Amino acid sequence: MRKQQPRKLQSVPHTVTGRTVQYRGALHNQRVEKVASRNHFASIFAIIIAVALIAVSMCAAVHVMRSQFFSHSNRTAIKSPKELAIEAEKREALIKAHKKLARRGVDSNSAEVRSVLSKMSLEDKVAQMFVVKPEELVGINWTVTSSGAQMQQTFNSLPVGGIMYTRENIQSPEQTKSMISKLQEMSNARVSLPAIVSVDEEGGTVARVSSNPQMGVNTSPNMRDIGVTKKMRKAYKAGAYIGKYLHDFGFNVDFAPVADVLTNPDNNLMKKRSFGSSPKLVASMTDAFTDGLQENHVFATYKHFPGHGSTFEDSHKGTTVSNQTPFSLRKVDLVPFKDAVDTGVKFIMVSHVSYPKITGDDTPASMSEMIVTGLARKKLGYNGILISDSLGMGAISLRYAPSSAAITGIKAGLDMLLSPANLRQAYYSVVNAVRRGEIPESRIDDSVKRIIAVKLQIAKYQKLSK
């Protein structure tokens, strides 16, 4: 019988340790593989447990940090409605303070202003209170398109504070620039001050310059169309665009923006010219328009104080009445004008609208001391120039003689009288009223100091432009 030979030992590396292991037969081989498999599984399981523990630790740490963060945020960020309102008021006040600083200009009580005033005769001071059309100054019925010898002669005897040009006077860019440049030469030579060179350029339906195709500029949209967008940027761009070409042509005052709140949707005079029916919207839009205009060294004029948006009649044609009460006037119509006062706007135009529930009678606002001095000066604290709407409009010319309108307006507190029905009657009536003591000369001086202050600022702008 054949003797069985012993099996040879096989050598293999251990799965985990890597050491060489000798085993005998298939059974031993299976046992080794099972041990190796168990050891491999144990290693993987240990790694998974370790990773899980690390993840749990990190989540716990993040939870603690989040709790601390939000606990701190709750203590510092959440504020009461009253606190938020106070902060909003502070921010608004700060914005207005910066704008007022930017628009402040020359102090009307400065030594520089008083020095200029002291060199003026009574006649020259009164003349400075008038802004007229060139035809009214020269005394002719045909259109003036240049500042020639006749204008020079008239201006030397009656150096008015400013000229208002209409569409008929404005024929081409070069003609307009020349006409205005020569006017400024006359004014500087006569009273050592520039003239106020003004125009009605609101955009839309009231655009004395851009409505002439020869001027080469586009007409901005009606302010109503800008207002409905509620985008202040559009109002700013309109003001900046208008201001740019007005300045290029030589104008320094624009009788815009319309600050009337349209509370009567049937008000045909204002429905396209007003920014809208919301007092806050109108205030923000007029402010943005003014920023654009005045960045181009053209002064804005808020109109028609204390508000023309509630009326039915047209003050160009005759008596116009507003039934606004003191409360509604304060809460609605005056909101944009209060903003103008707070930000230092230099011109406010006073309307010829009657407010019987405010004054107790049908006296036009421009002729009412209660409105001009009591409301604008005292209640609102306005220190800029109060200029009348055109005194040739039916609401005034059908009720007052030119001399009476001029005296009554100045007594009411107006600083400047726009386009009287008869310039010479109005001018000499004021001079004589001062001479006989009906109007104190100090009253004239108060207005002329405001005018000089603005003109000195215009002079500084002119130097910057050269």
TrEMBL record:
Residues 122-453 form the Glycoside hydrolase family 3 N-terminal domain. Signal peptide: none annotated. GO terms for molecular function: beta-N-acetylhexosaminidase activity. One of its GO terms (biological process) is carbohydrate metabolic process. It catalyses: Hydrolysis of terminal non-reducing N-acetyl-D-hexosamine residues in N-acetyl-beta-D-hexosaminides. The keyword Transport does not apply. Keywords: Glycosidase, Hydrolase, Membrane, Transmembrane, Transmembrane helix. InterPro entries: GH (IPR017853), Glyco_hydro_3_N (IPR001764), Glyco_hydro_3_N_sf (IPR036962), NagZ_Beta-hexosaminidase (IPR050226). It comes from the Bacteria. It is an enzyme of class 3 (hydrolase). The chain crosses the membrane at residues 41-65. Its EC number is 3.2.1.52. The keyword Transmembrane helix applies. Belongs to the glycosyl hydrolase 3 family. This is beta-N-acetylhexosaminidase. It comes from Gardnerella greenwoodii 00703Dmash.
